[in-house]
Design goal:
The complex is a heterodimer of chains A (about 130) and B (about 170). By secondary structure, chain A is mainly α. In chain A, about 70% of the residues lie in helices and about 0% in strands. By secondary structure, chain B is mostly helical. Chain B is built from seven helices and no strands. The longest helix of chain B is centred in the middle third of the chain and has 26 residues. Classes of the chains: A mainly alpha (about 130), B mainly alpha (about 170).
Chain lengths: ~130, ~170
């Protein structure tokens, strides 16, 4: 089998993952795109393992490790997304811009671990953002 | 082009098309389901590269666990089942340009370096005996480190998603 086939496929899959990370608004779907990129890397590892005829099976075992780390990563990532949703009522990445200096303080800025209706604290943060 | 190559191209085309649908569909739940199709097709590609253990690991962990986790996260964040508004057209265009350039650079470098190489597939290289033997002899240290990482991720996920009121109750 030609080595070019897995390489072409993994490059396309990686490009698709990059597109998803950049273009998606939902935080969960950004994590989905990251998984596609990790799969592209895995495919390269397995392809080069088969090409090298590695007796230690370094490529396949590294792909195994990548799968494990990806499972841990998506567990933590989805926990963070859930926490953001609980604090902000949205998992839309465009709504999460309070570190943006150019952002107009049109919406009450809400910190983590605070009630959604604590508008006074939110107003203070808006002023800080405006000065900066 | 022999049978293995034809099957690999079919699985690869399915993986790429399902991946493209997963990042472009306007329904978020469909995106997670297309991810499952794409990951299963990647598992088929692993099978064509004679990595048998990885096929089952991919099916069990990715198609089984990760996709279910993503679906649960979509449900818990009250994702709409209907079409949701996409990103602005300018950002989609920019993302497409960046993604296309990334893919082109990767393709050019890899094909220029390894384009003429051939994989001589020998059967049995990726079976449970070989992978298990390698895992517990040469790769035992990263394996043990990974077990600690998984424990840390487990504890971290629980600690992150615990409700605030639980902290007071627990003292």
């Amino acid at each position: 089998m030609s080595l070019a086939l897995p390489l072409v496929m993994s490059s396309l899959l990686f490009g698709i993952g990059v597109f998803g990370v950049l273009a998606r608004r939902n935080a969960v779907l950004v994590l989905v795109s990251v998984e596609l990129m990790l799969n592209a890397a895995n495919l390269n590892l397995v392809a080069f393992d088969a090409w090298w005829s590695d007796t230690l099976h370094g490529g396949q075992l590294m792909a195994l490790f990548v799968i494990t780390i990806a499972a841990a990563e998506i567990g933590i990532g989805l926990a963070i997304v859930l926490l953001v949703f609980r604090a902000r009522g949205s998992s839309d990445l465009d709504d999460l811009g309070e570190l943006d200096e150019r952002r107009e303080p049109d919406q009450p800025m809400i910190m983590f671990n605070q009630r959604v209706h604590s508008t006074e604290i939110g107003h203070d943060h808006g002023e800080v953002g405006g000065r900066a | 082009m022999n049978g293995v190559e034809v099957a690999f191209v079919l699985f690869g085309a399915l993986a790429v098309m399902a991946g493209a649908l997963a990042v472009t569909t306007s329904r978020v739940v469909h995106a997670a389901l297309w991810l499952a199709v794409s990951l299963a097709a990647v598992a088929g590609c692993f099978l064509m590269l004679a990595a048998e253990v990885l096929v089952w690991v991919q099916i069990l962990i990715y198609v089984g666990a990760v996709v279910v986790l993503v679906l649960f996260a979509l449900m818990l964040t009250r994702a709409p089942s209907g079409p949701s508004p996409g990103a602005p057209a300018g950002r989609v265009l920019g993302a497409g340009i960046v993604a296309g350039l990334t893919a082109i650079v990767l393709l050019a470098i890899q094909l220029a370096t390894f384009g003429d190489e051939r994989i001589e597939l020998t059967g049995g290289g990726g079976g449970a005996e070989d992978i298990g033997g390698g895992l517990f002899s040469n790769w035992v240290l990263p394996f043990e480190a990974l077990s600690v990482l998984l424990l840390a991720a487990l504890v971290g996920a629980i600690a992150l998603t615990r409700r605030r009121s639980d902290v007071g109750d627990g003292g």
